[in-house]
Amino acid sequence: MLIREIQQKDNESIAKVIRDIFHELDAPKVGTAYADPILDTLYEVYQEPRSVYYIVEKDGKVVGGCGIAPLENAAASVCELQKMYFAPEIRGTGYAEKIIEKCLEFAKAQGFEICYLETLSFMTAAQKLYKRIGFENICGPMGNTGHNSCEVWMTKKL
User: Fold this and answer.
1) How many other CB atoms sit within 10 Å of the CB of residue 17?
2) Domain limits at 56?
3) Cα-based distances in Å from 122 to 39, 119, 128, 152
């Protein structure tokens, strides 16, 4: 498997991976990444300064991804870990941790001091991973992500 930066040709594939996971988990579609108007143009979105999105590719097929970008409506020192989703076939392989570490290294190099993330409460495997990497729960949301269905918020000092 390969971790690489997103390319324009990946837009449709990564959007499908993300949407398929929401259907698989019967997760809320409103107030989550599923409904993000940018979901079909992630390559273009992550061309912004201090932003990157990494793709996991297996046998030439996009099977997951994760990104970092400045947290909207937050201090310049705060970034957000965004859109981390993996197809069932690669869960449990260690690639989630690898891609998060790659994102956090990028964030540090960009001068971010705090990384924020939010997730759904039933995504317990992801929360265990985040805690193992050093994220801690906080009492409420930060910034303005538009993900009002997410009820778990976490940060990590970089």
Assistant:
1) 21
2) 2-157
3) 22, 9, 11, 9
The answer to whether 135 touches 84, Cβ cutoff 8 Å, is no
59-89 residues labelled b (16+ CB within 10 A) or e (exposed) = eeebbbbbbbbbbeebeeebbbbbbbbbbee
CATH at residue 114 = 3.40.630.30
9 SS3 class? helix
Give the number of domains in the chain: 1
Q: What are residue 82's DSSP bridge partners?
A: 67
Indicate whether this model's pTM tops 0.85: yes
Residue 126 CA from chain centroid, whole number: 11
Name the residue type at position 94.
Answer: G
Q: Is residue 101 within 8 Å of residue 88, measured between CB atoms?
A: no
**Can you give the pLDDT of all 158 residues of the chain as single tens digits?**
999 999 999 999 999 999 998 888 888 787 777 777 889 999 999 999 999 999 999 999 999 999 999 999 999 999 999 999 999 999 999 999 999 999 999 999 999 999 999 998 888 989 999 999 999 999 999 988 877 778 999 999 99
Place of tokens 């940018």: 38
